[in-house]
Amino acid sequence: MSTAPLEATRETITLLRHVAIIMDGNGRWARARHLPRAAGHHAGVEAVRRVTRAARALGIEALTLYAFSSENWRRPEDEIGALMGLLRLFIRSDLAEMVRDNVRLRIIGDYSRFAPDLVALLDDALARTAANTGPILAIALNYGAQAELAAAARRLAERVRDGGMPLVGIDEEAIEAELETRELPPLDLMIRTSGEQRLSNFLLWQAAYAELLFVDTLWPDFGADDLAAAVAAFGQRQRRYGGL
Ligand code: IPE
Ligand code: IPE
Ligand code: MG
Question: What is the pTM of this model?
Answer without folding.
Answer: 0.95
